[in-house]
Design brief:
The complex is a heterodimer of chains A (365) and B (361). Chain A has 365 residues and is an alpha+beta fold. Chain A contains 15 helices and eight strands. A four-stranded antiparallel sheet of chain A has the order 1-6-5-4. Chain A has a two-stranded antiparallel sheet with strand order 2-3. In chain A, strands 7-8 form a two-stranded antiparallel sheet. Chain A is elongated, with a radius of gyration of 30 Å. Chain B folds into two domains: 106 residues, no CATH class; 234 residues, MetI-like (MetI-like fold), CATH 1.10.3720.10. Classes of the chains: A alpha+beta (365), B mainly alpha (361).
Amino acid sequence: MRRKHSRRNGSKALVNTILAVICLIWLIPTLGLFVSSFRPASEILGSGWWTVAPHRENVTKDQIQLPKDTDLSQPIQVEDQTFSDEQLRSGVKASDGSTLVWENRRARLINVQEPGWVANTTFTLDNYEGVLTGKTYKLKQPDGSERTEKGSNMSRAFLNTVVVSIPATVIPILIASFAAYAFAWLKFPLRKTLFVVVIMLLVVPLQVALIPVSNDFASLGLNGNFLGTWIAHAGFGLPLATYFMYSYISQLPKDLFESAYMDGATNFTIFTRLILPLAVPSIASISIFQFLWVWNDYLVSLIFLGGQEDVQVLSMRIANMVGSRGDAWHLLTAAAFVSMLMPLAVFFGLQRYFVRGLLGGSVKG
Amino acid sequence: MPTDSAVKRSVPKIALWSVLVPLLNVIVHSAIFIFLRDSELNPVVYAILAILWGVAGVYTIYWSLNWVIEQYSDTWKRRIQPFLFIGPAIGLLGWLLLIPTIRTLIMSFQDESSSKFVGFANYAAVFTNRLLLTALRNNLLWVVFGATACILLGLLIAVLADRSSFEKLAKAIIFMPMAISFVAAGVIWKFIYYYQPGDEQIGLLNAIVVYFGGEPQAWTSAYLPWNNLFLILILIWMQTGFAMVILSAALKSVPEDILEAARMDGAGEIRIFFRIIIPYISTTLLSVTTTVIVFTLKIFDVVMVMTGGQYDTEVVATQFYRQFFMYQNFGYGSTLAIVLLIAVIPVIVFNLRQIRKQGEI
């Protein structure tokens, strides 16, 4: 498939460099999340995640204990020099080149720092344990005190997301495939009109349907449980799935059906025994799409599933955490990464189908 | 085989089955639904049961109803069977999309509790109320900056990748953010924009700013309305891969001999790009653009996670959510939804034309 390009070497090097820079920019956000999710809570808040890489920094070589009764409003005598409290707070260069800075102002303890190569390489799995099991654990505050905190029970949310996603993928794709087969190979009145409707619904914004559907669901008792969410996802995913399956099934050779029909196969057997197996690559593509869409969805579950702990899905749980504990980066990063595990596995494992689904779904539409 | 209709069943028996089987389906599935809804099972067992029911349930509905139809005479079978195949799809689409669209349209002409008609009052409000106007303006910002950047960057990267020595890797890297959720992406970027007073910054952007001697900023809540751009950046990060993958496939379909011929005639690479490649991929370019614009118009998750619509970052979809669920104002809510619908109507027309051209209908 590779095409030969007869290009000069100089421009190729330039192209490679520019592309490499762009790729780096694209990678850094995810990398930051990934690295941070393994750092202890106190370190995340204390230093940037990039400090895990070796870098030059002032390293504490020594400490100086001043007398406890030193008056901080007066110039402070440190060994043979004097500094103000202000200077010691932000760090000040001493005559021997080292930097002096308060370690603990109240205890009158000063750090003597010198530049050196360091890397903050303390890593931990505590964050993941915290978000997955909901265990309580101790959190060191920047001022040295400790605070106990409860992690959030994300494993339940993970399970709920699986329960929502699998049927919400299989149901619409099965329904769409049946419909696509009928649109492509069966004769019935209003066939063209109905197909035009499907095409029109391809880009209709979800919002247009939310108020009436949620009213209906409320009166049917479908709000706040999985069935309602499956139905909602099935309905909203149907236009694309139907169109996608139609463009594959309609291109199958006609003789295939005729000979099967001659042999006495019914439409149902033709569909289940012949079409579905033949369409497996297409089904895989659109399934990945629908699956990722449902897995990553926030709006539909927000409206139809609601916020109850026992049904909440990952995206909702994380969005709630962002709202209520916006500074708990140790939990947020780990939680976000847990939610990304499945999409990334699907992406890297089935990238070929994913791209094919993308091409089929949009170049044509 | 059933098709030779050797087994002719009596009419009353068929009628009985036609009533009994659908009824049985309704009863069995309602029972399972109620059982699952009210039971206090272990979550894992519950998950397995629910998935099994969801997946197998749909298939058995089709299978059992088809079995009934197979009992009919050939003429009736041919008439009814297509409706079994498309019925569920059409039913769901009608119930969940088509009819709600009409109902929403009607509600947009009614007051907040949908009890009396108010004419165009809601529309007038949407285009005069400051909050709602902000939402419209921001959506425009999203489309103008976000969608444009996605397409241009996507095209640039597709061209670069085509000529680089690590095409596959580069494409995978750019494309990867598409797989993750906007909520997760929100966390990623919130961390990048994170602001705390002082020189020690743990947010990457502020650390860079401080490194170069600048003042750290609260990016998503300062400098209205330009803080929107920092949210739009997230969309660009996520959606450029989409444009890139599709445009890259289109670029590869440009016949090499046309390019060679142009080169022989002494055309430079840039001239070739604008005069040959761009016109050649224009259809794809157009459809990618519409897809990205439609997607951008519906943007919701990013704003909810990043700012919750505060600091003038509200967009139509978030304002819709606020009007609908928090203020219970169905009039404003449905009007905003209809505004979104009107915005995508050109795309609907475009899609229909494309498909008519391809002769699929």
